[in-house]
Design a protein that fits this description.
The chain contains no helices and eleven strands. By secondary structure, it is mostly beta strands. The chain folds into two domains: about 60 residues; about 60 residues, no CATH class. The strands form two sheets. Strands 7-9-8-10-11 form a five-stranded mixed barrel.
Length: about 140
């Protein structure tokens, strides 16, 4: 399965139905807040997503005609597995990483210190594959 998969949550996972428009979503897609539209709550996460706007992960697959989507709200106390752009490597543990797209992390082997580094690898979930484990880096009310 591509995308993010929740494997551990130290708290109760909060799920919420949010408004979407003109976009298909697959289970495991990360979403970010849409702060420009009054009629849409979230849009697909991208490599430009920031720690202030990363918001959740799709818990259902919907067509582009859908107006609502069930998501799991992300917190720093959760552990997720996800596909990475490169082979999983334990030397990348605790490095902060950008997303490649809504369901892949870009594990370049270099710690990224920008506010677009929304994921931190904490383990190579399946060494020798492209599956890593880690946490979303979530902060609020911060401007760069």
């Amino acid at each position: 399965m591509a995308g993010f998969r929740l494997i551990k949550d130290l708290d109760e996972t909060e799920e919420r139905v949010v408004r979407v428009a003109s976009q298909a979503y697959t289970i495991g897609d990360a979403v970010m807040l849409d702060r420009t539209s009054d009629s849409v709550d979230v849009v697909p996460a991208t490599s430009a997503s920031t720690t202030t706007n990363i918001f959740g992960v799709a818990m259902q697959t919907v067509a582009s005609s859908a107006t609502e989507l069930l998501i799991a709200i992300v917190t720093p106390r959760q552990t997720w597995t996800v596909e990475s752009a490169n082979t999983a490597n334990v030397s990348h543990n605790y490095q902060r990483m950008l997303l490649t797209d809504a369901n892949t992390v870009n594990n370049t082997g270099t710690d990224n210190t920008t506010d677009e580094a929304v994921f931190m690898q904490t383990g190579a979930a399946q060494p020798g594959t492209t599956t890593i484990a880690g946490q979303f880096l979530k902060v609020a009310n911060v401007t760069a």
